Amino acid sequence: MCCATTGSPFISTLELRPLNVSMYAMDFEDDFFLKVAARINFGATSKDAVRYPDDPYDRIWDSDIIKRQNFLVGVAPGTIRINTIKNIDIQTREYPPVKVMQTAVVGTKQVLSYRLNLEDFPANARTYAYFAEIQDLGKNETRKFKLEQPYIPDYSNAVVNIAENANGSYTLYEPSYMNVSMDFVLSFSFAKTRDSTQGPLLNAMKIRKYVEIASKTDKEDVNVINVFRYLSSDTDPNNRDPCVLTPWESVNCSETTPPRIIKINLSRRNVKDEIPQELNNMEALTELWLDGNLLIGTLPDMSNLINLNLVHLEINKLTGPLPSYLGSLPNLQALFIQKNSFSGKIPTGLLSGKIIFNYDNNPELHRGNKKHFQLILGASIGILVILLLLFLTSLLLMHNARRKASKQKCDEKVISRGSTKPLTGYSFGKGGTLMDEGTAYYISLSELKKATNNFSRKIGKGSFGSVYYGRMKDGKEIAVKTMTDPSSHGNQQFVTEVALLLRIHHRNLVPLIGYCEEEYQNILVYEYMHNGTLRDHLHEGWSQKQLDWLARLRIAEDAAKGLEYLHTGCNPSIIHRDVKTSNILLDINMRAKVSNFGLSRLAEEDLTHISSVVRGTVGYLDPEYYASQQIFKKSDVYSFRVVVLELISGRKPVSLEDYGPEMNIVHWARSLIQKGDVVSIMDPSLVGNVKTESV
């Protein structure tokens, strides 16, 4: 039994009945299964079907008395019904129930015929007829008959003599017709032979259709993906076929026969040990995502993977040289191996410019002769030092001029890259127009569809829409934020966010790359943050190991700097209004950047607060903001305090289980601090590794 992986499948009752081994035909099971088309009890004494407990195997035998369209019509004249209470010997392969074999129909005028429609036919079928002599015949009486079916002459020639075939009366004889081609209307007749004194008899019949089994996934592919399952604690847990019916979440499959695995996506699935050598047998593979795991060792031979076009191996512990075949794979378009420990010379084919190749943070990996490389590196460092001294001198000269500025303002210069398109004009009260000085990097909808594979990989969902992963032509990875319903927010909300983001440049704020305003769609394009959100790592189990204390401090510092820049580095200042762990993103180096300014508002220079409808997230809202509906900069500070408590404790801001119905993380922590119990606030993974005084 197999339940689908989508939706909400459920079972009310599941009863299992053991089958006698002789009842299960295995001569075709690799290619077909048998589906019951008809199972009929002839001569039944009532309309009720015979089933469990009369049939211990819980088969359902329909009564021939049931009247429905095109079911057992065309009955020959002279057909009568007979039955007995004597026991019937049913010791054959099929073991039909005794109750079924105690009834029968008899053709008293030499012929016994019927016609019935078969659902889902024409098709090939396996048919069984069940005969048992349940009349006491005289010494010189015989019952012999033949099947009259011109389309299957081989079976029509056989004479049925129940007494001889079954070795006596009240004993079952069950001839089978193994592979019969049937139309959707089945007409059959049994006719007595000339030397027979009695007409034909039939107790029951069964027709089972051959149904072809969908081709199973290529065996070599199954072997490889099963090795990955063994190496991972987080892959598809069941034993079903990777491609047939519902594919595993970790694979994409081709539509060929047999299906082949064309994509493996095991990003951040705790895959450990070495990449299996058998991977080289997956010739149909086009994409391989193994980033963010615990893989070790060298790269195996993958030279047979001629269809491979995308490989993600970053953030692992892989070592050794890069094999030369990587530079000659004919369809390879992108290779990402950053944050590993590869060493040696990079194959020249990877440096041709035809392949997007990222190998950052592999200190022992170099482009050519290592001594030559070190010489160039030394010279470069020397030049860099000289340039740095010149730069510092320039800074000293400019220092006095900069001190004259009363307050640092946001950078209002908008850099035009590639094709550009002006944004719609929009003004902010006294602040004037933000959108009329230059243009932003405009990305067409068609480019975004191509970059995101038609928005196929969703990586997040916010209050204003979904976020999708994409990769531009130049290899730059992007996060594409689509507005759920542009008409409901108006163009004003979209333009507000673009205007804000274009004016803000800080290392701890997520940078805006571009935007799209096309076909009633408002889309923002950000730099892709490889390590997701802080919430993912604290509460969703993204981290392969717990965040250590220094990592948490660094994240808190980064987020604080981002918020400080919004509050004091911009004029007018910006209040975020929805500071929370899911709005703090982590880049490939686990450095934090504050995101989502869609809820931000500009605070005019002469105002200390903004009056507004309460927005934000439960658990992070400043009680004063909630009560007064006036938002202050300190409202962001309150929310940031909640984030810090999450970093220290590893707990969610609101939890009925942890804090009870009327408490949140702030109330809980305050009560423990008042008792002097700081240790109970700390994440258990930090206890013993961090001095309490530092908390």
TrEMBL record:
Domain Protein kinase, first and last residues per copy: 453-695
E.C. numbers: 2.7.11.1
Binding site for ATP: 481
Organism: Arachis hypogaea
Protein's recorded name: non-specific serine/threonine protein kinase
Top-level class of the enzyme under EC nomenclature: transferase
Subcellular location: Membrane
Organism superkingdom: Eukaryota
Chief location of this protein within or outside the cell: membrane
Keywords: ATP-binding, Kinase, Membrane, Nucleotide-binding, Serine/threonine-protein kinase, Signal, Transferase, Transmembrane, Transmembrane helix
Matching InterPro entries: Kinase-like_dom_sf (IPR011009), LRR_dom_sf (IPR032675), Malectin-like_Carb-bd_dom (IPR024788), Prot_kinase_dom (IPR000719), Protein_kinase_ATP_BS (IPR017441), Ser-Thr/Tyr_kinase_cat_dom (IPR001245), Ser/Thr_kinase_AS (IPR008271)
Lineage: Eukaryota, Viridiplantae, Streptophyta, Embryophyta, Tracheophyta
Protein topology in the membrane: Single-pass membrane protein
Gene Ontology CC annotations of this record: membrane
Spans traversing the lipid bilayer: 375-398
Entry's Gene Ontology molecular function annotations: ATP binding; protein serine/threonine kinase activity
Swiss-Prot/TrEMBL catalytic activity: L-seryl-[protein] + ATP = O-phospho-L-seryl-[protein] + ADP + H(+); L-threonyl-[protein] + ATP = O-phospho-L-threonyl-[protein] + ADP + H(+)
Gene3D superfamilies: Phosphorylase Kinase, domain 1 (3.30.200.20), Ribonuclease Inhibitor (3.80.10.10), Transferase(Phosphotransferase) domain 1 (1.10.510.10)
